[in-house]
User: What shape does this take?
Amino acid sequence: MDLASHPDSAVYGLLVPRSPLVRRLLARNPSPFTFTGTGTFVVGQPGGTVAVIDPGPADPAHLRALIDGLAGETVSHIVITHTHMDHSPAAPALKAATGAQIVGCAPLVLSDDGPRADAGFDATYAPDRVLADGESVSGPGWTLTAIHTPGHTSNHLCFALAEEKALFTGDHVMGWSTTVVAPPDGDMADYMASLEKLMARDDAIYHPTHGEPVTDPQRFVKHLLGHRRQRETQVLRAIGEGLVTIPQMVSAMYAMVDKRLHPAAGRSVLAHLIDLERRGKVARAGESWSLA
Assistant: This one.
């Protein structure tokens, strides 16, 4: 395959180099929620000892492509950002094939009646070591440091690669869309605080699990913060105009968005409403909301 004629986002089944220490394998699970699919990252010098970040869904073809791509290399760590079904389920099989340790976020299993099958929680996830904020794993020429970034999920971690001033952002910052923050586990106040946490860093590049690299991180995060504050203003305005249920708000606020995404948008609107309720700006009565 001539990689030069295929954008990175369209290449399946091959480890595509992104930098001297970073390669990506794209799972063939594109959807309105995952963009072109889940990106599994390999960190370390090709041919050496490496870490795999988010091995992806329990898809035998994706796992086989990953194992084939790592032939002759030693996998020391399987690193997990969070336990949604498109991120961590391949970890046990990869561990069995490589002997690597599973490290990263804490286990989290909740029932979820939301609109995304891939956003259910992985009940098979069993880490050998849970990494706290600031803890690291390392190999020859690379170090990955956990950055606790709750919001999308309460157990979400990003991972900093100090040698390239890079940050693997999981689903906290995506390269193609805004992140769904879905209660009861997703929390808008936590999400905003985690964005502010990233604003204080000096990373040179982000590698999101979905979408392309973010090459101007601070500007991008500033845009995300502004977008969420704008949504909050829209929610308050909608209630003031008599749109008092979440479906009414979503229809007005996301009129130009693919309707397949409206249920997920409703979860993010709910996250805003819960945050506003905690701050005393709105009140609810059943399914209806009012200005406090």
